[in-house]
Design a protein that fits this description.
Transcription Regulator spoIIAA; 181 residues; six-stranded mixed sheet; alpha/beta; 11 strands
Length: 181
């Protein structure tokens, strides 16, 4: 992966530094090198940069987190929202080199199963570019309807649950289809 100077943009602030570069040989793929910290006050800057990448036609983004010192829970939520947007456009996001405390939080919240997580930039680029890679039809969290009482329920993953309204036992598959169990 090499940098093309014409594709490099910088956005600097007190906390977050974002440098972007297109990935050679992978059309529609861009790497965002993140450094500093992503706190609640930096989220708008992060969203603006990712929106600009989408407008430029990049639907596969690699977030290089090697330079991050801190990653807030709100930033993890922004990563998830970005992934949802990209998958709806036929793309995806990969995370590289998550800092250890943030990586632990990421795994604890169950996001590690939803994202492409790689140790190196080249590995992330090849995994995003793989033709056999297909995005799941439904991303969680997802709102489903209870078949027993028609209550709207927010689910964070597939599995067996009880309806919060009628206490019926429900089974929810990976496609977010709901069945009475």
């Amino acid at each position: 992966m090499t940098e093309r100077p014409s594709d490099r943009l910088d956005a600097r602030s007190d906390g977050l530094v974002i440098e972007s570069q297109a990935v050679d040989g992978a059309e529609g793929c861009m790497t965002l090198h993140l450094s500093g910290r992503i706190g609640a006050d930096d989220l708008n800057r992060f969203r603006d940069r990712t929106c600009a990448a989408l407008e430029a036609g990049f639907v596969r983004l690699i977030l290089d987190c090697a330079g991050l010192r801190e990653l807030s829970g709100a930033a993890i939520g922004a990563f998830a929202a970005l992934q949802r947007t990209l998958r709806l456009r036929g793309g995806d996001v990969a995370l590289v080199a998550l800092p250890e405390p943030a990586g632990d939080l990421f795994r604890l919240l169950g996001f590690a199963d939803l994202f492409t997580v790689a140790a190196e930039l080249d590995e992330a680029a090849s995994r995003l570019a793989a033709p056999e890679r297909t995005a799941p039809a439904v991303l969680f969290p997802h709102v489903v309807e209870c078949p027993a009482c028609a209550a709207r329920l927010r689910t964070v993953k597939s599995g067996r649950f009880r309806c919060s309204q009628c206490q019926a036992v429900l089974a929810i598959n990976n496609g977010a289809q709901v069945f009475a169990a």
